[in-house]
Write a structure and sequence with these properties.
With 950 residues, this protein is mainly α. It has 48 helices and 11 strands. The protein has a 5-stranded parallel beta sheet, sandwiched between helices. The radius of gyration is 36 Å and the shape is flat.
Length: 950
């Protein structure tokens, strides 16, 4: 076996050499090159059918040309494969490449005419070709391939054709243009931006005429999805989400770079437990290949390109100022432009291949890099470009410098306003490394850590804290470091432990910084709430509320009202808590702070105001994203989803929950990943997806147990109970919900015990456990009356209807439906009230009235895709001897069941992506079905569909 590597040092495959030919190489998966593989398959088919074709694959180093060539060779079953690669050390030896290519079929030369045979063998043996003999030699090569193809079709593979000697390339080009009608195909590869090799007898051709007359396919950079797949195929373990994202971006669509970066990391780095190198170094051979043209440029041009490579936005003015020669102009860059290394667009220098830019920077010696960074720092205005100034100032400094550190710190503060916390974090870190004083350095590192955390860089934030902690001198500094550390653990560690840590930090900060102490205490209360621990929540609130004064900012007063209102609500004092929670909601008006908006959203949930919750959490997501505070996004989406699934917005809820799950994993927040998984379990339960609901709920239970997360644990248990109710299994639902009554912190949640009461009442009445039902309903009624929410009062009235009999029960159900209509935002529960009322009326022998409620229920359930509740409702309709009503039979009778569901969702305003998330199919599949729906219904647009079905 011989190991086959591409010229850039990346292992491509192994193969066995037999009698000068190659057997099939080891199978490798090519990602993102479907079109190229189709072209190569056509070339093989052409050879087999006697109608040969030629193709040239071109692209930069590492794009996968050699891998594609290996692929076509491995697919050439039943063909004679001739292979040669250009070798730079032989490109001045005439016909050396042709000699290596044709050696396996030299025996076929004996069947050529004598003068052709002698000319061919003489030229290949002596490497001498006289100008008058060129045509005769080229036709002899063509005749030789034709003779060889009489036994088996022939595939000619020429790798690195731009490195062949000129006579060999001209001969093969001549042959490639004449393969039509022959069982011979030819595949060439060459580097992008090529020209013919030196030594040709004629003028240098244009770069795109390496093999004139042969179709050229330029390999573009791979799509990010393909690079993701390559990393999955090659990684020894599953990389952390953040690590994978860095590797994909650093590859710039180059598969060789992706594989090289992957192999350069240790298992600890792949898991995200250790920092990645900055920057990730390009492999030496690939870097050398990328810089071939660059190294042939004059020194002054190379220097300008180095300045451009290090600058973020390399304008021509910046290059002349930092280049050290004020006489330089844009015309000095023309040699680099002619080689395709750069483009000058207006006043900006652009590198078409970002890897060339990285290679130039990585190839420069350390001393020269420092000097260029220093020159760039002197040429950049820190007010206009604070991030770029801080980067160059830090890289250009040879030692700590207090004055320079202060300048970089000022730039970091401006960067926070212009570019968000993540960029500011890097600037604060650079200022810290320039700072001589240890305590000040600790302060700046702690600030950098918090900014990294806010920007979603949890692992980096933890590493910066580790650097800051040993340097802190004052108690206040140590307390601030502990605060940042505790906030990190709040979203990744045990919720009860995080609540205790934050409570201790808040108590310590009271003497140093009232605002920071309040922030620590409200975070402690948040962690306690996630754990479902009202006692720890109350302790945090008791310390926090007295810290706030009447003349404090609206933000601080919102926190106080929120904490006190939640604490009273936990204790069941809904009458007193309601005004406080409404005050928190009022204070959030006009705010642009994501955390405060989320606390207002939680207040809205406790008030039963789902429309407000959706609006304010949507604003929190938008503001957080716009400001670069990505760490807040998973939490905001968590509460937004909670407000959506009961109002029947399943496409939106599923899409937001999946977005939140991905964001939580990317930003290192397993606590919120568990919460979003619990929400997805509830969505699956409502839609009647039994297996998916159970799998998700089981995963949530395991994760919640490890981190004492009572909120997602209770939500998962609720989801399983809803699933059992929809299956008609009241006993399992009753016992699951009853278990929540006794569940302590880390396993249940007081608010969830309250919100599950309507379902518990339903399950208990079906089981004949009316005392349990009455007790649960009494607590729910106190909350519903205290907050005055129509939707909550509707569910309380429904519960009274389930416990009553005769006309009294009917009155309660009618009242419940009237309150549902007043709310207008609880479609799922309104449909369930129709179902329960219809079932009651059927048992009361009132089929006419029952039928209308059951029709309304089944239509709503079908719209939601709640298939198990659809089945229950249809069973009730059959019990009164009535088939279910199809309100749109004339319009949709020709549609399949899946098309009908898609049509209903689109008619309600769902996007293709939301429909896909709702039905667990791809957006492309949704688009395909929509075309079929439009065709069957003879309509042209989504508007027409909405008019037809609504």
């Amino acid at each position: 076996m011989c190991a086959r590597t591409c010229r850039n040092g990346v292992l491509m495959c192994d193969r066995r050499r037999v009698a000068g030919r190659n057997t099939d190489p080891q199978d490798i998966r090519l990602r993102g090159r479907d079109e190229e593989q189709r072209i190569l398959a056509d070339a093989l088919d052409g050879a087999r059918s006697g109608s040969g074709v030629s193709v040239l694959l071109s692209g930069g180093p590492g794009r996968g040309k050699t891998a594609l060539l290996d692929h076509v060779r491995s697919s050439a079953d039943g063909l004679t494969v001739l292979h040669a690669a250009g070798v730079p050390s032989e490109n001045d030896l005439p016909l050396a490449g042709l000699h290596r290519l044709l050696r396996p079929v030299e025996a076929a030369a004996e069947r050529l005419a004598a003068h052709r045979r002698d000319l061919l063998l003489g030229a290949l043996t002596q490497g001498i070709l006289q100008a008058p003999d060129r045509f005769a030699l080229y036709t002899a090569v063509l005749d030789l391939l034709r003779r060889a193809a009489e036994e088996r079709p022939v595939l000619v593979c020429v790798d690195d054709a731009d490195q062949l000697d000129a006579p060999s390339l001209e001969a093969l080009s001549f042959v490639a243009r004449r393969l039509s009608g022959l069982p011979v195909s030819a595949v060439f590869t060459a580097r992008g931006g090529h020209g013919k090799p030196s030594g040709a007898d004629h003028d240098e051709p244009a770069p795109d005429t390496l093999v004139p007359g042969v179709a050229e396919r330029v390999l573009p950079p791979l799509a990010e999805r393909a690079v993701h797949d390559i990393l999955t195929d090659r990684a020894p373990l599953t990389p952390a989400s953040g690590v994978r994202t860095v590797l994909v971006r650093a590859a710039h669509g180059n598969p060789a770079v992706a594989i090289s970066h992957l192999r350069s990391l240790s298992d600890v780095q792949l898991r995200g437990e250790a920092p990645l190198p900055e920057p990730l170094r390009l492999p030496t051979r690939l870097r050398s290949a990328l810089l071939t043209a660059y190294r042939g440029l004059p020194e002054e041009v190379r220097h300008l390109l180095l300045v451009a490579a290090l600058a973020t936005d390399p304008g021509v003015r910046l290059l002349t100022e930092a280049g050290g020669n004020p006489d330089l102009t844009v015309h000095d860059l023309e040699p680099a432009e002619e080689l395709g290394l750069i483009r000058v667009e207006g006043a900006i220098v652009v590198f078409p291949d970002p890897l060339v830019r990285e290679a130039i920077a990585q190839d420069a010696p350390a001393g020269r890099l420092r000097a260029v960074h220093g020159a760039l720092a002197g040429a950049i205005d820190p007010e206009y470009a604070p991030i770029e100034f801080s980067r160059h100032a830090a890289a250009g400094a040879g030692a700590p410098d207090a004055g320079l550190a202060d300048a970089v710190e000022a730039a970091a503060s401006r960067a926070q306003r212009l570019e968000g916390p993540s960029a500011a974090s890097h600037a604060h870190e650079r200022a810290a490394h320039l700072t001589p004083d240890p305590d000040v350095r600790a302060c700046r590192l702690a600030t950098a850590s918090y900014q990294a955390y806010s920007g979603g860089g949890t692992a980096r934030a933890a590493r910066l804290l580790d650097q800051a902690r040993p340097l802190a001198v004052s108690d206040r500094r140590r307390a601030i470091i502990d605060l940042v550390d505790a906030q990190l653990s709040m979203r990744g560690g045990n919720a009860i432990d995080a609540a205790e840590r934050l409570l201790a930090v808040g108590r310590e900060l009271i003497a140093h910084d009232r605002a920071l102490a309040l922030r620590a205490l409200v975070r402690s209360a948040d962690s306690a709430s996630l754990a479902g621990d009202p006692v720890r929540h109350g302790r945090a609130a008791e310390l926090a509320v007295p810290l706030v004064r009447p003349d404090d900012s609206a933000s601080m007063r919102l926190v106080a009202a929120f904490l006190k209102g939640c604490a009273l609500s936990f204790r069941g004092d809904y009458v007193t808590s309601t005004p406080l929670l409404r005050e928190a909601v009022r204070l959030s008006e006009g705010m642009d702070k994501p955390s405060e908006l989320i606390w207002a959203g939680v207040s809205g949930l406790r008030l039963g105001d789902a429309p407000f919750v959706r609006a304010v959490t949507t604003r929190a997501v938008d503001v957080g994203t716009a400001q670069g505070e990505y760490a807040i996004v998973p939490a905001a989406l968590g509460f937004q989803v909670f407000s959506e699934f009961w109002s029947g917005r399943f496409p939106s809820a599923a899409g937001h929950a999946l977005h939140g799950l991905r964001a939580a994993r990317e930003y290192g927040q397993p606590v919120w990943a568990t919460q979003h998984l619990a929400s997805l379990a509830m969505i699956a339960a409502i839609q009647g997806d039994v297996d998916t609901c159970r799998i998700r709920a089981r995963a949530v239970t395991t994760q919640a147990g490890e981190k004492s997360l009572g909120l997602p644990a209770a939500l998962a248990a609720w989801a399983l109970a809803v699933l059992e109710l929809s299956r008609g299994n009241a006993a399992d639902a009753f016992f699951r919900l009853r278990a929540l009554v006794h569940a302590g912190p880390g396993h249940g949640h007081p608010t969830m015990r309250l919100l599950t009461a309507p379902h518990f009442v339903e399950a208990a009445t079906r089981m004949g456990e009316t005392e349990w039902a009455r007790t649960s309903l009494a607590g729910y009624e106190r909350w519903a009356e205290g907050i005055g929410s129509p939707s909550a009062r509707a569910l309380a009235a429904r519960g009274r209807g389930l416990l009553a009999t005769g006309d009294e029960a009917a009155d309660h159900f009618e009242n419940a439906l009237a309150l549902h209509r007043e709310s207008g935002d609880d479609d799922v529960e309104q449909a369930r009230t129709h179902l329960l009322f219809g079932a009651f009326l059927r048992r009361a022998r009132l089929p006419g009235r029952a039928r209308e409620h059951l029709y309304d229920a089944v239509e709503s359930f079908e719209r939601f895709g709640a298939r198990l509740w659809v089945r229950q409702t249809r069973a009730e309709l059959r019990a009164i001897g009535t088939a279910e009503r199809d309100p749109d039979a004339s319009a949709t009778s020709d549609l399949t069941a899946q098309q009908q569901q898609i049509a209903r969702l689109v008619a309600e305003g769902a996007t293709n992506r939301e429909v896909a998330a709702h039905m667990f199919i791809s957006p492309r599949t949704v688009e395909h079905h929509l075309r079929g729906i439009f065709r069957k219904l003879n309509i042209r647009s989504r508007v027409d569909l909405a008019r037809l079905l609504n």
